[in-house]
Design brief:
By secondary structure, the protein is mainly beta. The chain is built from one helix and 20 strands. It holds the Pfam family Ig_3.
Length: 256
């Protein structure tokens, strides 16, 4: 019959055609993996009867690798495969983010402070590094002047610095370094009001200096009369406690 083509199944003398098995994923050996933040992990994919095909790895529609060819940063992503093996793996090295000196930083009131966030192993560098304080972006907080954020990219790390001029008690709290595409890290800043007492023997006076360079002078003759120079920044409760301390100290000086 014109236009008719015999198939192998219809030809009794033809040898049977052995079709290759279709590729089959082994889900038991291709399970989900749990990794620590900032650590490394190896993902595995086992495919039987793959033949001449290859395995591709992708993340959020971005192809990372196909076979042994890498389309992303080769220092972060590396495909692993042994010849004649059904296992195809992908090793991922995640950048490590840390704030130097964390998780707690102590700063004297009135001094300048610098918070430094380092992203190790991020060879391309994040597009942006955000700093937040009490859920507010510090770069755009109109209630606080004298702050500055600078970010520099080096070959194997990114450094973001956040500087504070003349730290105030209101600058205490949680600060987050939040690089694009990476986990954020936290540091807790404590702004301290430090008092430095000393006694001058010539005037028999006790002087208390706080970290903002303001002073309170108590005379031996009138311990309850406090003369201030500048703003002390003392709260009412702190002033009451300090008055008791000064009264007892002045009494000891009077006996001397």
């Amino acid at each position: 019959m014109p236009g008719y083509v015999a198939s192998a199944a219809e030809d009794e003398d033809a040898a049977p055609v052995q079709l290759p098995d279709a590729p089959e994923f082994d889900l038991v050996h291709s399970a989900n993996k749990t990794a620590t933040v900032g650590g490394s992990v190896i993902l595995n994919c086992r495919v039987r009867h793959i033949g001449s095909l290859t395995v591709s790895w992708a993340h959020e529609l971005q192809v990372l690798a196909n076979g042994m060819h890498v389309f992303a940063d080769p220092r972060r992503f590396k495909p692993l495969h042994q010849k004649y093996s059904d296992d195809w793996s992908l090793r991922i090295r995640s950048p490590r983010v840390e704030i130097v000196g964390g998780p707690d930083l102590y700063i004297n009131r009135g001094s300048n402070a610098n918070l430094t966030c380092v992203i190790h192993g991020d060879y391309n560098g994040p597009n942006n590094v955000r700093w937040t304080h009490n859920n507010k972006l510090v770069q755009f907080d109109p209630s606080r002047s004298g702050v500055r954020v600078t970010t520099t990219h080096k070959e194997d790390r990114t450094i973001s610095s956040f500087s504070i001029e003349r730290a105030l008690p209101s600058d205490s709290g949680e600060y987050f370094c939040d690089p694009d595409g990476l986990h954020q890290v936290k540091v807790i800043v404590h702004v301290l009001i430090v008092y430095r007492p000393y006694v001058t023997s010539s005037t028999r006076e006790l002087t208390i200096l706080d970290s903002s360079s303001s002073d309170i002078t108590v005379s031996n003759d009138h311990p309850a009369a406090m003369q201030t120079s500048g703003q002390t920044g003392l709260s009412q409760s702190a002033a009451a406690s300090l008055l008791l301390l000064l009264s007892g100290t002045a009494l000891l000086l009077g006996r001397g």
